[in-house]
Amino acid sequence: MKTYIASEEEIKTAQKWYVLDANGLILGRMASRVASILKGKHKAIYSPHQDTGDFVVVINADKVKISGNKLKTKIYLRYTGYPGGQRAVALGDMLKKDSCKVVELAIKRMLPKNALGRRMFKKLKVYSGTDHPHKAQKPEALTLNL
Prior knowledge:
Number of strands: 6
Radius of gyration: 17 Å
CATH architecture of the domain at 14-66 and 98-131 and 137-141: Alpha-Beta Complex
Structural class: alpha/beta
Number of helices: 6
Strand order of the largest sheet: 5-2-1-6
Strand content: 15-25%
Distance between the termini: 36 Å
Shape: globular
């Protein structure tokens, strides 16, 4: 048996653009499916050491649903690098301030933590409304069976 390795031309011709309406979708379930598409796991040419994934445009990020009591209990932590510089923001507050950031973080944290994961994350575009500047790429509507 030989390991299949997709060529660069094969990867480029197989790349598609998808648009996903996040209105009414549960955040975590949507994020795991989008991360899988960014990785390319839905394709026959998938290879874990290559970026075979597709582009995904997520619209209506402000209308995503959060299950349970996470709006108050889920905390996003970051550190400034200075003593006493740990900052905490609740999910509910972050959704009001920047709903796109919440969706981006949910998806980014499901991707590999290396250079390949950073390349995959660049193919994600998130918008809070229904308008997006990627109409020229003719994205296909993505439906998730959740």
